[in-house]
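Please check this protein record:
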Amino acid sequence: MDVARVIADLSLSSRQSDRLVNAFLKAENDDQRRHILDYPEQQVFWNDDPVDLGEILPYDGRLSSYGNELMQSIVNARVGLQVLLLMLDDPRTGMFNDPEKVIINPFLKELPGYAEKLSDAISQLPTHKPTMQDER
């Protein structure tokens, strides 16, 4: 039912619907299925191949719990930005009516400030330079 709802909400073509259904059926667990339904654009609009679910939901045993949470947040942010860029590139963004512009534009105008804050936070992170002992 959830897949059908996404297909109807996005008015997907049969080919796009097939991509979404195939990705949903290939998902290995409920988290992956939920991610597909939350971000259907990844499966439908990006390319002919569904997104590698291992890349979307990374886990690295070398990282602490917090490190894995941070990695997941980074991936989620990257995916969200990719989807946003695709949507902004869509010709329909030029067809907004005046009420839509009034609602959407304030949110769009906030994005450069967040991008600057993110850039500042990343540039302030300590970096690890390997020592001779690390290389052995």
